Structure formats: structure tokens, C-alpha cells
Amino acid sequence: MKIAFTIDSMYNSGGMERILTTIANHLSQNYTVYIITAFQKDRPYFYRLDNKVHSFDLGVVVPNVSGFTFYAPVKKAYWMRLKEFLFSEHFDVVTSLGGLDLDFLPKIHDGSKKIVWFHFAIDIAKTTWIKGKDIKSRFIANLITLRRIYYARKYDKIVVLSKTDLRRWLRYTNKVVTIYNPVTIFVDGSSECKSKRVIAVGRLDYQKGFDYLIKAWKQIYKEYPDWKLDIYGDGPLRKELEVQIKDNGLSHVLHLQGVSSNIVKEYQNHSFIVSSSRAEGFPLVLIEASACGLPIVSFDCPSGPSEIVEHGGNGFLVSPVGNIDAMANRVMQLMADKSLRQKMGRCSLELSQRFKLENIAAEWIELYNQLVSS
Description:
Elements: E1 2-7, H1 15-27, E2 32-37, E3 54-57, H2 71-89, E4 93-96, E5 113-117, H3 124-129, H4 135-152, E6 157-160, H5 163-169, E7 176-178, E8 197-201, H6 210-223, E9 228-232, H7 238-247, E10 254-258, H8 263-268, E11 272-275, H9 284-291, E12 296-299, H10 305-308, E13 315-318, H11 324-335, H12 338-351, H13 357-373
Parallel strand pairs: 1-2, 1-4, 2-3, 4-5, 5-6, 6-7, 8-9, 8-11, 9-10, 11-12, 12-13
């Protein structure tokens, strides 16, 4: 079987790029796998690609101009070059990551089955991308959502990351399935949950809600001044968060650590993980933390955490999103009870088994076989 994935680029350090690399590397052991990029140029892939995976960049040029002036010609060039490549290679299945090719990939009638694989919740535009609550902002958010639904329905299959998102998509089409993200890290040991350190991981942007977490930590610090919070990741809000940390007098206990080259070691050196996201597709960091034996405290945001966190089992779900007091109280509950942390950590290890790469890859292979034989 010959399989292709299409994505705008692979030089970023995001979760989507990491998951795609992991799945492609695994599938390449038994299948012919290509990753087709549009704007990669000569930049290296951020994550290591197996030698068996073929990478091909279409060389689409994006002018260094802001706004939508060059949107149409760029998309047209992408379409034409992708069409030429697909017809020349004769793939069995082509999977889009929902980028710029979302609306035109199904129009390329090269004989391959087409899948769109969404790493964001169906309503991500409403919950995160468009922050305004005015009529114009809500209209734009709804328009973006309806556009995604319209074009996604033209694919042979839609893959989403959570059962919550599946239920939403089923209002519009029955061509949708859930395939969870797999654990992408090699774990050689688990946390003992003994240190007085808490970890949070994610891009420093509005979606991840670290502003909420800093507010919660101001309350926590009054009761547990000897505990530290380490936030790993980088992003556009770094300066803003640094100011918030300083203004709240937390610089000595709350640290923005940047991107770690060994995140497994960091998980193992902390006692539990906190997630303050406003919205998620399917939070990869919570799967990773579970595989390292960490309890989880997370806002019960749409969508994903409720399918990773068994409330009272391997952690706590906090509702609603933005409830600072409830978040602080759950964090302090774990700080106060080492035996509870260790019990929840063991539960995390057990529950993480369902996200093993072999199990998730088998679901992809089953989907491919169904489509190709239909």
C-alpha cells in the first residue's frame, strides 16, 4: 500500500508535526509512506524522520507580505503542484492535515482515497482563534467553522482525535471516526511523585491558558510557598507571561523553562502535571505525562482531557474552564497528599497503555484497508 500525508510544513515543533512523524515512521516499516509539504523549502524537519519515509516538498513560494493579498495565487500553485505529484505517484490513500489544501484535495481525482485528519476541535475558531465576543467576531468564527465542515464532508473519511469531537461532527456527517493520538516518547522509568515540583507543558499562547495557571499559583503560593511550577514551551505570549509572573511576585517559584530537549526526564522529575487549556484537540502532553506515571489536574475543556483523565482515578478534572479557585484547590489537594499522588500516578501508568503506538497504528491500518477495499 502506498500512503501519503499532506501538510503545509514540518519545521515547527508542534504536536501535530510530532504525531505525524511518529505515525509515518511506524507505518513506513511495512508500507510506502510519503510526507508531502508545500512550504518546507530546505529547512530541516524538526522531528527525526525514519530513512524509509519519503519526504517531498512542492516548493510553493509564499511572498513576504502580510494579509490575504497573495492567498489565492499561493493556493492555486499548491493545488497545481500537488495534483501533478499525486497523478505521477499513484497513491492508494492521501491524508490531509487540514491545512491550505483542505478545500481542494478532494478535487484531485487521481484515484486515491482522501482522508482529512483534524488535530483541532470542530469549534476551535469559537473557543480560541477568534477571541472577541462581539457580533462580528462571532460571525467570523462561525464562518470558519462552517467552512471546515463544508469542505471536510467532501472527503472519504474524517479522522478526529476525541469522542467529544466525534459526537459534534456526527451532526453533519457519518463519515467521521476517532483515532487517538499515540504516546510519542520512549519512557524508561516513571516519576516517584515525591518532589515539590509541578510541571506544565505547551505553547505559550492564548489557547493554553497559562494566564489562568499563574493566577491559580498566586493562591497556591500562600499555602505552599516551597512548591515550584515549571512551564516548558515557547510562544508569542512569553513576554506577557513573564510580566504577569513578576507582577504577582512569583518569579522565584514559577519558571518559564523554554523547550526541553529531554521532556521525559522533566516529567520524571516532577510530581504531577497541570493543564490550563481553554480548548484542545487531544492534549498530547497529558498522554506523555500519563506514560511517565504523573497524576493530572486539568480544566475539563473541549475536547480531550475527559478521555485521558479519569476523575478521581489518575487525576482531577476542573470545571468550568477558567475556575481559578477550583484549579488551585485541586492542585493543593495533591500537594498535601503524597500517597494520593503516588496512587494516581500508578493509575496513570495503567490508563496510558491504551495510547501505545502499536495500538493506534493498527487503527490507521484498519481504516486504510477499509477505504482501499471499498
